[in-house]
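User: Please run a holo structure prediction.
Assistant: Happy to. Please share the sequence and the ligand.
User: Here you go; the ligand is SPQ.
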Amino acid sequence: MGAQKLIHNVNRLEGLLNIPGDKSISHRSVMFGAIANGTTTVSNFLKGEDCLSTIRCFRELGVEIEETDYTITIHGRGWDHLREPINLLNVGNSGTTIRLMLGLLAGRTFHSTFIGDDSIAKRPMRRVINPLREMGARIDGRSNGEYTPLSLRGGGLKSITYQMPVASAQVKSALLFAGLQAEGKTKIIESAKTRDHTERMIRHFGGDIYIDDLSIIVEGSQRLFGRHVDVPGDISSAAFFLVAGAVVPESHITLNRVGLNPTRKGIVEVLEKMGANINISSYNEESFEPVGDIIIQTSNLKGTVIEGELIPRLIDEIPIIALLATQAEGQTIIRDAEELKVKETNRIDTVVKELSKLGADIVATKDGMIINGPTKLHGSKVSSHGDHRIGMMLAIASLICEEPVELENAEAVAVSYPEFFSDLSQLIK
Ligand code: SPQ
């Protein structure tokens, strides 16, 4: 596919958007629905390529899943009805699918083999496999299990106490799925608080879990029950419009029913700290995940420091925060974000490379980046490098570029936000 011409030099953004369902919660709704007993219905399910990969993998495991528009129905029959797959489990571009499924299948006695795309082939898996091996799962793969293809034969898990060396919701969730099937109590100690959707879902599906700050304990042999899941709008998708609204002149955007889980809303805190004109209304935490509407308007921004425990709460938003920082007065420093190097691309390198092409004053550091602003951005040919979040960040950057911008590999956005370009064009006035 050739390069896509982006809309540049926009005067104003205005309007209201319903943000598509949260990717992390959509994946987990399929997984919990598949292991639960009884029917699970999921509304506002994200029909992004990553979540469709998860559906495909569970169908391979014999789970019946119906799809109608943005609602899916999963006919769960419990752990014991998952069957040995005949075909390879292809996770496409999705790190969440492979890492969580490794934990979920670690307790099943059958054999399965995971593959994915070229990006997945470079993403580290031993962070999940080492503790799963300790619990008794037999897993092998390229470079002693670091990379796909990975093959797994699970069963007979024993519980462990595991101090996590990296802050990762995927590792934690894989161990929670394994812990639900292990003999005894599995204890996980996080190095920093990461997104807690799996913990919330265990409770929502009728399971027990004990959480004390960074320690989590889950008991084995638990039965879960089918439920209704109403997926909130994805704050990681909303982030692109929050930044667009803040940096494009005379803008006023309302984003409806966005997930405001405290472990995910670091971007809102950063916008507030930088002086953005942002407000939350209709906040509601009655359901298992808090939601609210976010209103953003054009803002005078100042640089900030983003580090420490905040990083896991906005890790996927760092590419778009880097763009935000190019429009802020003064210096923004992002540190403690080494994990960016093992995402769909090395997001320190790709962000710095592509924003530099547009004229940003940005340099990479060993664990983040330093951005000086404000800078006027100009036109260029840029690339998503096949990374959905880089592609969407560049499309937002183009709105404030003075000359045309062409984006290579724009189709990558479909991984998490297939309607991204049409939603964006609705706001352009
Ligand atoms: O699923 P994938 O490919 O890993 O997606 C990303 C993303 O940008 O959408 C990361 F590249 O999100 C991860 C996130 O970074 C989704 C996730 C989850 O649902 O549990 C957790 C985070 O990853 P990690 O490695 O910090 O646990």
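The CA atoms of residues 33 and 241 lie 31 Å apart.
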